[in-house]
């Protein structure tokens, strides 16, 4: 909010210069964000927090400043000259809903002229970001910026029956507000009405019908106190934000209404040559009642971590107009009407501590009575996955958690789809309307963007949650890890283009490092994945816990991806809570003998079955079985491949002989021939 | 001329050879200069023999022979000691070629910052907690003293989902959950994703926060100050930052403090990043409002505590000089690879 320094100083007695003033205000909680020199003064932009409506005006800010620089707040003069004609005889006010309007003060001013206000006043308004309009409106705005009390001027002759009725709107009642829009009211809206119809939306905006204009002679000046919640609801529903609603919403000063009415009436009379009628019409069905608070100075010191003297407590509270009375350690005080935010002891502590200054409080670490810190298992789990992916050479990315509904619908076919999707009621964009059920779509989008930038190879992953809702409406969140590989080159020495085997290698490393239980691989993942190169990962219970393979060509085309992509997603929640500690095995003492075996077999005999059979049939001296090479093509019938397995034999207590190994190999060949339709070369 | 000249040449030769050191090509240059077959200095010295008077020739000839032998021997030794560039050039590895290795993985800067902060607080005895991203109104707002129609809700542009659920607008609901289920002393931090319906250069509909809470008997505002100063000095170690506490307002703390550090870009003298103020707002904090304690069932007469929160993305941007918040969520591996 903008303040005029020269104006502020009119209420303030102090020797402090502008720099000191700005610094002390910042230190007591009124952050001076910017300072601009304008003409002979400075305009300060100050951040006034929502709980401090009392400081959203020059006088209120001056009160804070006076305490902050140990100065003095000057008293406000509001006597005015009145005619003998009584306002009571010219107009009447009735409050029908005292729960929403606790006080309504009106003044009648006769013989106004619609002229511009003097330059000095226009300048002050403009420095504070308020547009000058005419002397009458400007006067009400001036008093608002001075005291924080919103005011409104009605053309008295245009109020039917010269009456003000404060009431809830009738359902469907129409009011044309000052901005020219027709507002359809509800019974929750509080309106100012005349004898016939609504003429203003209370505390928010005046109506066009009763607006002052060229023909206005007599003015009824409103200075009232409206309920914060009611103003807030109306202002929100109609999306209107005015200087008045801003202050009422946050809580105006219920005792300021009569004072501000006099200030504004005097100013209007002065500027336009009009006369102020005798007396106020002051309807006050619910007068403000002060409340006493009591606290101990020593308790305050313990809470702050600094002993604060009784005289300092007294100085601060008196300066803030809390009327403190001291009795030994006890302080009794009465917060003023403009401090509706003060409800309990903690609020009083805050007032004192912020004026003592946070910088004056010595820093002292708390003494610990707790065991060493522990990380929630969920964080341990997901960071284990994250570490595993980083160790596998992948770069982590973070993408939006919301996706497009059309993409989300296709996820019904994704083997790791967790349930029904969760939609946003109020998304920012239609492309971000559904909470994701898989991390893969956002990664594909990211992959496309990066490839379009000219990158040739990708190795990236994301760790994040997926969301779903079950038929009972229960929300579910699961931790996932997804990755994308593409291209090759430097990241994979000797590999031009990564394929399924590189993907599987990365996935297996992550599975092991994240401590997944035993996982089986089976064909799956279509149509998202290429049927020939897609796999589902299943746990012992047969639940799918991962998907892994080459992105299907149809899906790739949908995403506009021209380069082959390998994708995988793992359900991290399926991993073990704690990784198992590896157990040491004694290192062998005798040398091993390695022997290869080349087997020609049909492609539909999976390698995993061959290897299992080797373990089963090769005898107890076998130590390791691995895939050495695979050949298909020339010289082999269609559908046949040649697999070369490398076998390592070792005896724990002595050196094996080549003859023993040859014999074992021979035995294995015949045993395998007996089990499968295979040939040896 | 004469033997004295030979001594001069010997001294010059030894100096040249000393300068050549172990550089094979430099040693070769020395050889050419002194023992070169076409224009070496030794040739001149040998030719000079003829011009000498007879009585001097004998001594000169003997001294010249010694010099030749010494030069030859020194050159042989120097050549052997030098790193030979001449051996088998076709097998030579160009050691300036780039090395080949598996690409290293890299963690997103936001997580780098999160782990750094976790580390600091774990050492101070804080637990790291977690909670749901889809929250209910009670934990996200009501329990934290933000009833509906509270003006503070204006700062929380909220995404709502099916039913009466919302995407949490801050990590504070986890505080409420922990306080409901655990007795003090409580000492936790809560990192995580949060969501607000806002998108521009400085706002993104999804971002990351970290939140802290300490509840115990006799916790003072001085304890809050010391804890956050310790934390910020550790987080920005190397920058030697000053920490400033300013009164502010949050519905769930009373009193509240906005915490600034001296600008790490200009050291406090004022620059574009800190809007010429020399300070950067880094976190919000305060003493837990007794109303919050009452809502979650903690005795507000017996216990006090403090809470604080900061944006992880913002810290990452400051630390690594990333100008645009939304770049963090572009999904571009080239951003992350810079932090490998
Ligand atoms: Zn700076």
Architecture (CATH level 2) name of the largest domain in chain B: 2-Layer Sandwich
Instruction: Tell me the quaternary state.
Output: heterodimer
- Output the CATH topology of the largest domain in chain A: Phenylalanyl-tRNA Synthetase, Chain B, domain 3
Separation of termini of chain A? 88 Å
H/E topology pattern of chain B: HHHHHEEHEEHEEHEEEHEHH
Radius of gyration of chain B: 38 Å
Which ligands are bound?
Answer: zinc ion
Provide a descriptive summary of the structure in words.
The complex is a heterodimer of chains A (681) and B (340). Chain A has 681 residues and is α+β, with helices and mostly antiparallel strands. Chain A has 5 domains: 2-73, Phenylalanyl-tRNA Synthetase, Chain B, domain 1 (2-Layer Sandwich), CATH 3.30.56; 82-283, Phenylalanyl-tRNA Synthetase, Chain B, domain 3, CATH 3.50.40.10; 293-360, Phenylalanyl-tRNA Synthetase, Chain B, domain 1 (2-Layer Sandwich), CATH 3.30.56.10; 377-574, BirA Bifunctional Protein, domain 2 (2-Layer Sandwich), CATH 3.30.930; 593-680, 2-Layer Sandwich (Alpha-Beta Plaits). Chain A is built from 19 helices and 33 strands. A 7-stranded mixed β-sheet of chain A has the order 21-24-25-29-28-27-26, with helices on both faces. A 5-stranded mixed β-sheet of chain A has the order 6-9-12-13-14. In chain A, helix 11 packs across helix 12 (345-356). The longest helix of chain A is centred in the C-terminal third of the chain and has 18 residues, at 658-675. The radius of gyration of chain A is 40 Å and the shape is elongated. Chain A starts with a strand and ends with a strand. By secondary structure, chain B is α+β, with helices and mostly antiparallel strands. Chain B folds into 2 domains: 3-85, no CATH class; 109-339, Bira Bifunctional Protein, Domain 2 (BirA Bifunctional Protein, domain 2, 2-Layer Sandwich), CATH 3.30.930. Chain B contains 11 helices and 10 strands. In chain B, a hairpin with a 3-residue loop joins strand 3 and strand 4. The radius of gyration of chain B is 38 Å and the shape is rod-shaped. The two termini of chain B are 69 Å apart. Chains A and B meet through strand 3, helix 7, helix 10, helix 12 and helix 13 of A and helix 5, strand 1, strand 3, strand 5 and strand 6 of B. Bound molecules: zinc ion. The site of zinc ion has 7 residues of chain B, from loops.
């Amino acid at each position: 909010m903008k303040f005029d320094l020269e104006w502020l100083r009119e209420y303030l007695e102090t020797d402090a210069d502008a720099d000191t003033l700005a610094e002390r205000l910042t230190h007591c909680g009124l952050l001076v964000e910017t300072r601009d020199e304008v003409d002979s003064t400075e305009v300060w932009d100050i951040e006034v927090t929502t709980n401090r409506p009392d400081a959203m005006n020059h006088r209120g800010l001056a009160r804070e400043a006076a305490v902050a620089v140990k100065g003095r707040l000057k008293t406000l003069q509001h006597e005015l000259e009145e005619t003998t004609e009584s306002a009571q005889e010219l107009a009447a006010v009735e409050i029908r809903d005292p729960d929403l309007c606790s006080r309504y003060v009106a003044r009648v001013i006769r013989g106004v002229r619609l002229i511009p206000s003097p330059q000095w006043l226009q300048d002050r308004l403009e420095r504070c970001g308020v547009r000058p309009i005419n002397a009458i409106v400007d006067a009400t705005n001036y008093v608002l910026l001075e005291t924080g009390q919103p005011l409104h001027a009605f053309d008295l002759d245009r109020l039917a029956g010269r009456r003000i009725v404060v009431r809830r709107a009738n359902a469907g009642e129409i009011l044309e507000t000052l901005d020219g829009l027709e507002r359809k009211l509800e019974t929750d809206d509080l309106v100012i009405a005349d004898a016939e119809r609504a003429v203003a939306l209370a505390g928010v905006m005046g109506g066009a019908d009763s607006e002052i204009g060229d023909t206005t002679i007599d003015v009824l000046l409103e200075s009232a106190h409206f309920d914060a919640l009611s103003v807030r609801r109306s202002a929100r529903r109609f999306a209107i934000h005015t200087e008045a609603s801003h202050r009422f919403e946050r809580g105006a000063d219920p005792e300021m209404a009569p004072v501000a009415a006099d200030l504004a009436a005097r100013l209007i009379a002065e500027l336009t040559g009009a006369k102020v009628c005798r007396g106020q019409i002051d309807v006050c069905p619910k007068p403000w009642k002060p409340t006493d608070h009591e606290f101990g100075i020593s308790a305050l010191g313990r809470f702050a971590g600094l002993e604060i003297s009784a005289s300092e407590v007294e100085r601060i509270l008196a300066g803030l107009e809390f009327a403190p009375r001291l009795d030994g350690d006890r302080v009794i005080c009465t917060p003023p009407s403009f401090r509706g935010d003060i409800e309990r002891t903690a609020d009083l502590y805050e007032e004192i501590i912020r004026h003592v200054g946070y910088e004056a409080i010595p820093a002292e670490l708390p003494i610990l009575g707790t065991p060493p810190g522990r990380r929630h298992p969920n964080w341990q789990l997901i960071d284990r996955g994250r570490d595993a992916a980083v160790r596998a050479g992948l770069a982590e990315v973070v993408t939006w958690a919301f996706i497009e509904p059309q993409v989300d619908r296709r996820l019904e076919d994704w083997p790791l789809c967790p349930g029904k999707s969760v939609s946003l009621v109020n998304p920012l964009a239609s492309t971000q309307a559904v909470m994701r059920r898989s991390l893969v779509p956002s990664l594909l989008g990211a992959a496309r963007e990066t490839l379009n930038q000219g990158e040739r190879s990708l190795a990236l992953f994301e760790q994040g949650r997926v969301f779903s809702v079950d038929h009972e409406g229960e929300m579910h969140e699961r931790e996932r890890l997804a990755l994308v590989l593409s291209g090759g080159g430097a990241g994979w020495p000797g590999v031009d283009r990564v394929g399924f085997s590189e993907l599987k290698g990365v996935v297996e490393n992550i599975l092991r490092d994240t401590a997944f239980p035993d996982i089986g691989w089976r064909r799956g993942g279509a149509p998202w994945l290429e049927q020939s190169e897609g796999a589902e990962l299943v746990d012992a219970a047969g639940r799918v816990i991962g998907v892994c393979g080459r992105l299907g060509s149809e899906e790739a085309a949908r995403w506009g991806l021209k380069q082959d992509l390998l994708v995988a997603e793992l359900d991290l929640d399926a991993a073990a809570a704690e990784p198992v500690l590896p157990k040491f095995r004694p290192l062998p003492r005798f040398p091993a003998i390695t022997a290869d075996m080349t087997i020609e077999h049909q492609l539909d005999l999976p390698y995993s079955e061959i290897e299992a059979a080797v373990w089963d049939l090769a005898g107890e001296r076998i130590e390791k079985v691995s895939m050495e090479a695979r050949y298909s093509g020339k010289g082999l019938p269609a559908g046949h491949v040649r697999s070369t397995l490398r076998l390592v034999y070792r005896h724990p207590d002595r050196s094996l002989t080549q003859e023993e190994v040859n014999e074992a190999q021979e035995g294995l060949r015949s045993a395998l021939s007996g089990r499968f339709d295979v040939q040896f070369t | 001329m004469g033997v004295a000249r030979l001594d001069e040449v010997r001294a010059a030769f030894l100096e040249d050879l000393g300068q050549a050191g172990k550089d094979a090509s430099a040693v070769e240059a020395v050889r050419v200069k002194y023992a070169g077959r076409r224009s070496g200095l030794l040739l001149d010295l040998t030719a000079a023999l003829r011009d000498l008077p007879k009585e001097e020739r004998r001594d000169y000839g003997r001294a010249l022979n010694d010099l030749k032998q010494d030069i030859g021997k020194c050159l042989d030794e120097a050549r052997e000691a030098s790193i030979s560039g001449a051996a088998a050039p076709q097998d030579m590895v160009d050691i300036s070629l780039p090395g080949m290795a598996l690409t290293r993985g890299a963690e997103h800067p936001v997580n780098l910052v999160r782990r750094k902060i976790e580390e600091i607080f774990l050492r101070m005895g804080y637990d790291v907690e977690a909670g749901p991203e889809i929250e209910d109104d009670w934990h996200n707002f009501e329990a934290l003293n933000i009833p509906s129609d509270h003006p503070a809700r204006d700062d929380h542009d909220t995404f709502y989902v099916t039913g009466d659920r919302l995407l949490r607008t801050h990590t504070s609901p986890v505080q409420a959950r922990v306080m409901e289920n655990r007795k003090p002393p409580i000492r936790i931090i809560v990192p995580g994703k949060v969501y607000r319906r806002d998108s521009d250069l400085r706002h993104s509909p999804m971002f990351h926060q970290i939140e802290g809470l300490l509840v115990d008997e006799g916790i003072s505002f001085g304890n809050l100050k010391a804890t956050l100063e310790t934390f910020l000095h550790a987080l920005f170690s190397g920058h030697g930052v000053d920490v400033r506490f300013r009164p502010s307002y949050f519905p769930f703390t009373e009193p509240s403090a906005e915490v600034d550090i001296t600008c790490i870009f200009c050291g406090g003298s004022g620059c574009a990043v800190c809007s010429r103020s020399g300070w950067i707002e880094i976190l919000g904090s305060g003493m837990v409002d007794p109303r919050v304690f009452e809502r979650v069932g903690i005795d507000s007469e017996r216990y006090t505590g403090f809470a604080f929160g900061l944006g992880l993305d913002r810290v990452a941007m400051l630390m690594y000089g990333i100008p645009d918040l939304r770049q963090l969520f572009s999904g571009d591996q080239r951003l992350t690879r810079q932090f490998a």
